[in-house]
Design a protein that fits this description.
Two copies of one chain form a homodimer. Chain A has 294 residues and is α+β, with helices and mostly antiparallel strands. Chain A has nine helices and twelve strands. The longest helix of chain A is centred in the N-terminal third of the chain and has 18 residues. Chain A starts with a helix and ends in a 12-residue tail after the last strand. Chains A and B meet through helix 1, strand 2, strand 3, helix 2 and strand 4 of A and helix 1, strand 2, strand 3, helix 2 and strand 4 of B. Strand 2 of chain A pairs antiparallel with strand 3 of chain B.
Chain lengths: 294, 294
């Protein structure tokens, strides 16, 4: 005989398959125990989706689980790493049934299968307010492959993958694919000096990348790749694009553009400008990204 | 110029000191990057506190941060490990000011100083409902020191540390000290076959420990150590005790009791019963632990 929470945990656990390696103890112990990154570095990331802000009660539960997981995968990709293990905290309303949670876990499991991580633990709790799904994820990266926000130099060429803006209207925010393989390929083949994923909009995220490296930036707003139907304001400020923003030294830029098209013919890569001397901030105008606390 | 969220992150970051080692990249990058556990195992745990359930708006914010961190430390201790790094997700109401978040981070930092972990990242978001503070924590443990819930054998002696019950009424749930040093000492000096921390009450947690090992249990309810003023029902079922429940082989039990008193003279250790053949469940009566989903 198991109580409600134990039975629910067992039910959710059945939705999860093993996609990776190195799990010594998983769901059902006080902690998960896994093998570490060996001589590499361990990447740690946590991210959450809040009902009414990042998803609605009308969105398919599996898409909510997919999004919750893929947000963290996107950050691990942007550091040059690969995801390994995930812990999931679900704080849910009474109206969110077991079936809804099953759906969330199906989405988490699908993301684990696609991107090679295992859900090894989590926590369930109740709330009277909006549901919160929080995903903590580990990843691994070789020391020499770690890419940070800092590291860009004035003159480095700025690129973005994909198209920006209209993520909410198009539903991209629920079904995006983190640029994991693309980021691994970039780091393996080019000198990527600085990289991050675009989650709050270029107008918030580019200044962060520049500030982290002690540089400024000059971009051409007309060059910013927009999703069909998205305005420039949306492309700069809406957020939830989950594309890569990165900087490479000038002599790498041409070779990258040539090789990108051969390797990733279906995904657009756009040169949007340059890093510049500290203090220079050109091309964003008065655009602002998304800020929970503005 | 930084936006609201960036400024808030910078403010909270100032509350955090470095208590451990091995942080290559921390707050301000897409992920934290840290050194791994070497040849040992990596422990992973996530736990959350929800306003109105695990704390109230009248509780001191620093105590809320302390509790959020120490719940995870308690689980890492119960696996025989030591905490290393933490990620903190704060989903807060508009009425929860910067000062309230400062307090939460002071509590997190204090726990880090006491128990030797660093907060290396996190996430801030807004909610219109109860606040949620979720802490994901890593730890390290030598392979031979890992203790799980499974592993107990019929005849093993069951012990609990401290006293049980009355955690809410006494305020223990906000100021408890995870039994980290005690657990490390136990694992280093005795054959601890199974261990867990008591978070949902002995009446929920003991059956979990027994089930994990394929055993039953016989306890003497009169032997269960109670906090002053707590009834047996409260000691068995209230939860949030954050004491250790563990099983050692019979020949270790007497030696443990002698040495415990010398090493930990201020902390009670109580023999409450034995693991037994599967199916045997004696001594809990109709007591039930806390269950979010009962």
């Amino acid at each position: 005989m198991t109580h409600g929470e134990d039975a629910l945990v067992a039910r959710l656990q059945r939705a999860l398959q093993r996609h990776g390696r190195g799990v010594v103890a998983g769901i059902g112990d006080d902690c998960a125990a896994v093998t570490g990154p060996g001589r590499g570095l361990l990447l740690l990331k946590t991210d959450c989706v809040v009902e009414g802000r990042h998803f609605t009660s009308r969105d398919p539960a599996a898409a909510v689980g997919w999004k919750a997981a893929c947000r963290a995968v996107s950050d691990i990709a942007a550091c040059g790493g690969r995801p390994a293990h995930a812990l999931v905290t679900c704080v849910v309303r009474a109206a969110q049934t077991k079936r809804w949670l099953d759906g969330v876990y199906r989405g988490l499991d699908k993301a684990g299968r696609e991107f090679g991580f295992d859900v090894v633990g989590g926590e369930l709790s109740r709330t009277d307010g909006p549901a919160v799904i929080s995903v903590a994820m580990t990843g691994t990266v070789a020391r020499r492959a770690l890419v940070r926000r800092a590291g860009g130099k004035p003159g480095d060429v700025l690129f973005v993958t994909g198209v920006l803006g209209g993520s909410l209207a198009s539903g991209w925010h629920l079904r995006f694919r983190p640029r994991l393989d693309e980021a691994s390929w970039l780091v393996a083949n080019f000198r990527v000096r600085a990289m991050m994923d675009l989650s709050d909009g270029l107008a918030s995220d580019l200044p962060r990348l520049a500030r982290a490296g002690g540089t400024g930036f000059v971009i051409d707003p007309k060059s910013v790749p927009r999703r069909r139907g998205a305005s420039l304001k949306q492309a700069l400020g809406e957020g939830e694009d989950f594309e890569l923003l990165f900087a490479v030294p000038p002599h790498e830029a041409d070779r990258l553009e040539r090789e990108w098209g051969k390797r990733w013919p279906k995904l657009r890569l756009t040169r949007i400008g340059l890093l510049a001397a500290a203090g220079t901030r050109e091309g964003l105008g008065r655009a602002r990204g998304y800020d929970h606390f503005a």
